[in-house]
Amino acid sequence: MHGSPSCAQQNQKKTNTTVDPEDVYRHGQLTKDWWDEQGVLKGLHSLNLIRIPFVRDGLVQCSLDERDPTPLKDKKILDVGCGGGILSEGLAKLGASVTGIDAGKDLIELATEHSKNNPKLANNLPSYFCTTVEEHSQERKDYYDAVVASEVIEHVYNKEIFVKACVETLKPGGKIFVTTPNRSRITQILGIYVAEYVLNIIPRGTHQYDKFMTSPELTFLLERNNCHVELTYGMIYYPFSNRWELSKSQLLAFATQAEKLK
């Protein structure tokens, strides 16, 4: 197998790792298209328009009049499964001290190079590491103000290990933000079959239905790891206008915010 290697031990049993080497490989094949805002990953780019405010508002409560251009300047944020850095850069532009981690070496190299060439980040470059969250959690326990896992948990093998490791990196009182497709037949039809094989707006093979989870399942894992789920929104994507919005309906996808208890 050629392409982006995994930084995890690929001979580990699936039950003992978060990393799916096949997923790492698939995403590594997209490096040349990653920063094309009108390309195959345009939905990830447009998702920033709702996920960045979702994280910002979960961490900083202030009125529009009080808000400054860098409201996250005192926050240390871990972007898990950062890929080529689309979300990491967006958070860094708001002043956050961002650490991005990913198991794909090629993607980490892309993220590092792209951020260096972004003049808006000249004084606040994200730090990127090729590693897994379970490895990173051993080095950075109780360290971050926030952990963001956006469009990632649906690609990991062992979700229990994943959530546990994410929470371990958080300071008590820190927040974790997760966005992910919901496991429903509607998502299987629209989010996989139609999106990947009919409209071709997502690269084929990106998602495997049996890896999806539901909001109650995620809530259960978070609460079992000493977190209180504060809110969950549904998310809807309109492919023809490339636009996302938060919704009451969680049928297709959802965004969850939780706090690590002190």
TrEMBL record:
Record organism: Parnassius mnemosyne (clouded apollo)
InterPro entries: SAM-dependent_MTases_sf, UbiG_MeTrfase
Cited NCBIfam families: UbiG
Places the protein is found: Mitochondrion inner membrane
Membrane topology summary: Peripheral membrane protein
Compositionally biased spans, kind Polar residues: 1-19
Enzyme Commission code(s) on record: 2.1.1.64, 2.1.1.-, 2.1.1.114
Superkingdom field: Eukaryota
Chain positions recorded as S-adenosyl-L-methionine binding sites: R51, G81, D102, S150
A single GO cellular-component term on record: extrinsic component of mitochondrial inner membrane
CDD domains (alphabetical): AdoMet_MTases
Single GO biological process annotation from the record: methylation
HAMAP family referenced in this protein's UniProt entry, alphabetically: UbiG
Name of the protein in question: Ubiquinone biosynthesis O-methyltransferase, mitochondrial
Enzyme class: transferase
Binding site for Mg(2+): E151, E154, H155
Gene3D superfamilies for this protein: Vaccinia Virus protein VP39
